[in-house]
């Protein structure tokens, strides 16, 4: 479970990137986080993952306050940032072992996890190559694999489909569904509204640091009383139409 209570983040003491945000993402759910560029999505994710601190409010991961016990809280989740260009001089296998070391994954367990994930993402033959030689999609896949090395109960994914080929995107969506169906949590941001509509159990729309809606697609359509697509409703709500 992820819980945000009265979370606010401002820059220069003036501009509020996130304004008094309240959000609860329970176990067993794929939760989508939608919004235009600059809406506050990445800022919110960076606060949830402890990269930056809120000005006020509290954030807990599986009941653990991210600011009071950051190490324990961070062990609860796997995080995929919006940019996969990292550790480029490492080989794929070196990066995965590095991530396994950080999360204290044993040697036997990591071998099994690496084999399973590399087979599923068709990365076996690329693990001995440097990450800098990878395509954008391959870099995205190796970062996803690294985030899942310790089998976290919570997945936090910032635009995870970006750069993935259709097959890899399908595989990731399939894995997200499997993970949630086991009683775990998947929280992801996306610009791809069709993806959110098809796989999310619930989603939130954020704009200018404020949550405009949180619920299911059916609840959103009921609120608008019109048979519109998610794209049309999204554009209308965020003033981009």
Low-confidence stretches: none
Strand content: 25-35%
CATH architectural group of the largest domain: 3-Layer(aba) Sandwich
Report helical residue fraction. 25-40%
CATH class of the largest domain: Alpha Beta
Ends distance: 34 Å
Compute the number of strand runs.
10
Strand order of the largest sheet: 6-7-8-3-9-10
Global mean pLDDT: 92
For the sheet with most strands, the description reads: 6 strands, mixed
Global structural class = alpha/beta
Assigned CATH superfamily of the largest domain: P-loop containing nucleotide triphosphate hydrolases
Radius of gyration, Cα only, in angstroms?
18 Å
Number of domains: 2
Order of helices and strands: EEEHEEHEHHHEHEHEEHH
Examine the coordinates and then state which fold CATH places here, giving the name of the CATH topology of the largest domain: Rossmann fold
Shape: globular
Number of helices: 9
What would you say about this model in short?
This protein has 241 residues and is α/β, with parallel strands linked by helices.
């Amino acid at each position: 479970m992820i819980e945000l209570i009265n979370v606010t983040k401002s820059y220069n003491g003036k501009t509020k990137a996130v304004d008094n945000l309240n959000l609860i993402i329970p176990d067993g759910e794929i939760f989508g986080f939608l919004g235009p560029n600059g809406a506050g999505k990445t800022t919110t994710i960076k606060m949830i993952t402890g990269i930056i601190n809120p000005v006020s409010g509290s954030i807990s991961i599986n009941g653990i306050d991210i600011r009071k016990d950051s190490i324990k809280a961070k062990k609860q989740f796997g995080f995929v940032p919006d940019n996969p260009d990292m550790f480029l001089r490492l080989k794929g296998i070196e990066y995965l072992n590095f991530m396994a070391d950080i999360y204290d994954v044993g040697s036997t367990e990591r071998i099994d996890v690496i084999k399973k994930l590399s087979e599923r993402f068709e990365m076996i033959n690329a693990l001995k190559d440097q990450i800098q030689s990878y395509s954008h999609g391959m870099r995205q896949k190796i970062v996803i694999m690294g985030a899942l090395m310790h089998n976290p109960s919570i997945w936090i994914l910032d635009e995870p489909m970006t750069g993935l080929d259709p097959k890899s995107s399908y595989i990731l969506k399939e894995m997200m569904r499997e993970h949630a169906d086991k009683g775990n949590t998947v929280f992801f941001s996306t610009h791809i509204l069709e993806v959110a509509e098809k796989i999310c159990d619930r989603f939130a729309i954020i704009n200018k640091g404020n949550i405009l809606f949180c619920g299911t697609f059916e609840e959103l359509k009921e609120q608008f009383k019109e048979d519109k697509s998610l794209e049309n409703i999204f554009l209308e709500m965020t003033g981009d139409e």
